[in-house]
């Protein structure tokens, strides 16, 4: 089976076809949605309120859904905080200043157990209901935090599962495709692509530990990868950070 990232769809093939886009409110999901829109898909955005402590991203997702002209924006609540086990859902301190060049086997405490499996499962259910064969997710395996569910192998396995575990797949009505257009891009390349597509990164939120006003901390993995990406792209991050050193 070919990797999901190899799937290409022309504008003429995708014109007016529905696609489910996982929209977290972050930079990567915003860029992914813009790419899907440019390819001609009708965007059905799905945001999952999974009990994340950095809840500012939910408001960012709503802003982005409107800015990206999504046909529909569905927000589903699945409380993974009841399970805990992650600094993003549990009362565990978010690590700051962690080296960004750790080996892939070093999975940080910000990993949410099975999160992308849950999110893609919900996206798959949504796609089957609206007869959408295409699902977009903004994962990337270059500048990322070591999460196992951001790898091409995982996406390929889930695409195979989608064909086996759905009525539409078994009956041959839909051939589900998992699109991860950012999978092999660095953060700088993602930012350049988004800017070219007109993504307004002021609307996004990436920080794992924002303050009460929603300002990003500048020191968590998500902030540091974002800032590194903007610096390497030769651009200034439009967000206002908590400390002057990261502005």
Could you explain how this protein is built, in words?
By secondary structure, this protein is an alpha/beta fold. The longest helix is centred in the middle third of the chain and has 15 residues, at 115-129. The chain has eight helices and five strands, in the order αβαβαβαβααβαα. It has a single domain, classed as HUPs (Rossmann fold). α7 (187-196) packs across α8 (221-232). The N and C termini lie far apart (45 Å). Mean pLDDT is 91; it is low at 1-7. A five-stranded parallel sheet has the order 3-2-1-4-5, with helices on both faces.
Task: Write down the CATH topology.
Answer: Rossmann fold
**CATH architect. name:** 3-Layer(aba) Sandwich
Shape descriptor: globular
The top level CATH class name: Alpha Beta
Spatial strand sequence of the major β-sheet? 3-2-1-4-5
H and E string: HEHEHEHEHHEHH
Task: Describe the secondary-structure layout.
Layout: H1 11-14, E1 18-22, H2 27-38, E2 42-49, H3 56-67, E3 72-77, H4 115-129, E4 134-136, H5 152-165, H6 167-170, E5 177-179, H7 187-196, H8 221-232
Parallel strand pairs: 1-2, 1-4, 2-3, 4-5
Helix pairs in contact: 2-7, 7-8
Quick summary of this structure?
The protein is an alpha/beta fold and 247 residues long.
């Amino acid at each position: 089976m070919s990797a999901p990232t190899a799937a290409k769809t022309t504008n003429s093939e995708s014109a007016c076809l529905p696609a489910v886009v996982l929209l977290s409110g972050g930079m990567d999901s915003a860029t992914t949605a813009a790419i899907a829109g440019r390819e001609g898909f009708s965007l059905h955005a799905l945001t999952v309120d999974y009990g994340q402590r950095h809840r500012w991203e939910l408001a960012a997702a709503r802003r982005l859904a409107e800015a990206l002209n999504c046909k529909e924006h569905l927000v589903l609540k699945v409380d993974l905080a009841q399970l805990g086990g992650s600094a993003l859902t549990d009362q565990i301190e978010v690590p700051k200043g962690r080296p960004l060049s750790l080996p892939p086997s070093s999975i940080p405490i910000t990993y949410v157990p099975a999160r992308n499996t849950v999110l893609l499962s919900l996206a798959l259910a949504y796609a089957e209901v609206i007869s959408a064969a295409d699902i977009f997710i903004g994962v990337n395996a270059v500048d990322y935090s070591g999460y196992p569910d951001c790898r091409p192998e995982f996406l390929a396995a889930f695409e195979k599962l989608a064909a086996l575990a759905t009525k539409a797949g078994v009956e041959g009505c839909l051939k589900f495709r998992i699109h991860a257009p950012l999978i092999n891009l660095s953060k700088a390349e993602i930012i350049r692509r988004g800017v070219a597509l007109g993504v307004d990164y002021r609307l996004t939120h990436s920080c794992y530990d924002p303050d009460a006003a929603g300002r990003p901390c500048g020191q968590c993995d998500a902030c540091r990868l974002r800032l590194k990406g903007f610096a390497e792209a030769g651009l200034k991050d439009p967000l206002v950070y908590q400390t002057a050193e990261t502005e």
